[in-house]
Amino acid sequence: MCRISSELPKPAGPPPRFLITKPGVYDGKAMGVSPGDTVGVQAGEYTYFRFRNFIGSASKPIVFVNYGGLVRVHSPVAQLSNVTFAASRYVVLNGQGDAQTDYGFRISAPAPGVSALAIGGKSSDVDVHHIEIDTAGFAGIMAKTDPAVNDSSTWRGHFTMYNVSIHHNYVHNTRGEGLYIGNSFWNEGITSTITVFPHEIVGLSIHHNRTERTGCEGIQYACAPNSQVYHNQVSQTGLSPFAKFQDNGVQIGGGVSGSFTDNEISDAPGVGLIIVGHRGPLTVHNNLISRVGACGVFVDTRPGSVPGATIAFTNCTVDTERKTAFRFYNRDQRNDVTSCVIRSQTPFDLTDGIPPIINENNVLGSGTVPPGVGFMKPD
């Protein structure tokens, strides 16, 4: 099994102050867990965990770690999720508790509609790393609190999720998205009796993850200004989409700005990289998109998109054979395509008018690629 490189050290130190040995519901406040404490989960087999009210601090997060080997969480029962965090802040889920195990938590949630790991309930400031999701009836890892009509504390402007870091995880065999981070309706909101808008995620980082064999997108993220998404490997997506146009490689959704760099996307039946209703500006640098069924890159605007915002595509390789490489439906924004390798029948599809586009130093077709052009495998 291939690995994504990691420079993170293996944890060392005294045994955890708290040690969990049974499945169930755990309340940090009731347990007396304090900022800086470590909560160990004894190696073994479990069915589910519900973690609530674990409140650390920015300098002293509460760390959950596998203790003594692999922690396997599996249940075929249709519960909310096999592992959930709610009403928690400044917490770390760390799968590096055993030097012999790359992913110290292995979570499986095969029941239809069930996500394996869910971070919600107005949780914030969460770091999740070295976790394996090997089955999910819906998303592998989900991080968001959906706005509720009857609870204004969940609405945008009333609640903000901060500093979410999802990294060095292996997610595969999900019926929905591999990583589902942020609500999908940043632009339009969610309407029942009234229209409410989902919270933003300020300080989102998604990196060094690997997703394979996902029912929908390998990674879908939204509501995230100045986000940093990099060094991810996404393959074999869209195998069982629950709706039309959910069979893409990676989806960047409404409210996003920041950077998307050093990622590899392959074997998607739909679009390789679909960017819908982003906020911008957005830098898409040094990405490889190959073997996709539709176009390589799709961009549009929706309510809330910023007119005149720039998407800069630099040093990307888009190999779609007979398909379209870039499809731009964002007529009031600027698209820069520079130093890219474009191997497709149609490099650019512009519709509904011609959006401003800068097309410089690109290699089209099967031409020789000079140094400094196209995707370069990151170290």
Summarize the structure.
By secondary structure, this protein is mainly β. The protein has one helix spanning 28-31; strands spanning 18-20, 24-27, 38-46, 49-52, 62-74, 81-86, 89-94, 105-109, 115-120, 124-129, 131-136, 141-143, 161-167, 170-174, 179-181, 190-191, 195-196, 201-207, 210-214, 219-221, 227-230, 233-235, 250-252, 258-261, 264-268, 273-276, 282-285, 288-292, 297-300, 310-314, 317-329, 334-338, 341-350, 357-360, 363-364.
Description:
Residues 244-345 form the Right handed beta helix domain. With 379 residues, the protein is mainly beta. It has a domain at 139-364: 3 Solenoid (Pectate Lyase C-like). It has one helix spanning 28-31, and strands at residues 18-20, 24-27, 38-46, 49-52, 62-74, 81-86, 89-94, 105-109, 115-120, 124-129, 131-136, 141-143, 161-167, 170-174, 179-181, 190-191, 195-196, 201-207, 210-214, 219-221, 227-230, 233-235, 250-252, 258-261, 264-268, 273-276, 282-285, 288-292, 297-300, 310-314, 317-329, 334-338, 341-350, 357-360, 363-364. Strand 16 and strand 17 (195-196) form a beta hairpin. The model is unreliable at 1-12 (pLDDT under 50).
